Amino acid sequence: MKSDKEELNGLRESLVKSPDDAVLRGRLAAALLGTGALEEAEQEYRQALAWSPGNVRLKLGLAETYRRRRKNSAAIVILENIAQEEEAPAEARLLYAQLLIGEGELESAAREYRKAVEAEPSKADPALAGRLGIGPEELPDGGAADESLTPAGNGYLPSEAGPEPPRISFRDVGGMEEAKAEIRKKIICPFCKPEIYRNYGKSPGGSILLYGPPGCGKTYLARAAAGEALNARIRFLWIGVDEILDMWTEDGGGNLHGYFDYARRHRPCVLFFDEADVLAADRAGMKDVSGCRIINLFLMELDGQRYSNEGVLVLAATNAPWRLDPAFRRPGRFDRMLFIPPPDKKERAEILRLLLAGKPAGNIDCRLIAKRTEHFSGADLGALVDAAAGSKIREAAQKRRPVPITDRDLFEAAETIRPSTVEWFQTARNYAVFSNQDGFYNDVLAYMETI
Do 94 and 67 contact (CB within 8 A), yes or no? Predict the structure, then answer.
């Protein structure tokens, strides 16, 4: 019997001779998935689907890969597409049901589960049925689970979902009060109390762009916004740029519309785009026709020209706002731009307290440490605490007990870390001074006057 390594090597060798063989590439992707090589499996599934875009088994395999990589939003979009077909495989509906449970959509999950079992009674899963509140009387064959759901090279390798990433809220975010208030006003309040907004001619939805130096909490803030939204039973889709540009074919425009279409059919819904400058790049001088087309489509989706975006909020983040096409700054597109600067002294102290929570630490003077870490981003402060903690590990191992982190450890660590925001402001200064005709960089200029 061949080992996993031998099987993978054999499949790779065969693909050298037949690189366009979608079936062969799908077998390689399934084998990689079986060994836990998730990133490679995703690449192979996507390449296979570029050659065979209608292959349901390949789509299902990619959805399972996305699920294991915690890209649940991408998996849900694929599975919903499959589930719309009357003859959708039972495996797809079962996986879809599992993900819907995670989204709090128990009624939809139960519907998909029942359809799966109706099509293939042997696929009944008592544990999943129990989570959905479906009694044994609804399970055929006494509720016996199907033992055939094992790796079979068909692109589907079911497994128990691992622990979900911890859900955080705005309470876990140090500082950024203005940004939190704006997102709460745009996300939670309009969707929870729409009648108040309608009285003033406002509808739930809109677009917010977060921009600023890397490591200052834009993505972390979005994670917290996701937690706030889910607590209010608002769907939140986290979308990576790679999932738009090449989900299973090269048709990034279709992928982009698929997410907006899903959000409109499941409103209230928040779409979060990280690295938005890639999808909203300046078209001036761009020679890539397909890239221009996706940017144009993004503008159309934001405008809601063909479909209403009421109940859909677009949240995006970028480290490079100067790369954005000016068209995205017009009213009706990103109608609120929020500059996320490095944390101030008070915010740095709060972030340090959050970072030190749960770690062995003495009576740390976070305000004093904050004073010594001017221009540090949240990520820089994380590196600072990690470095201080690392310096205590050897001592703790020798003494066989936790050794508290001290002020001195943090001061010494601070001497070795250069603030990462300095380089960003050097670049931003040029744009803020010479390219600020529309006032886009006013907040950046105002901040730089204080430093």
Answer: no
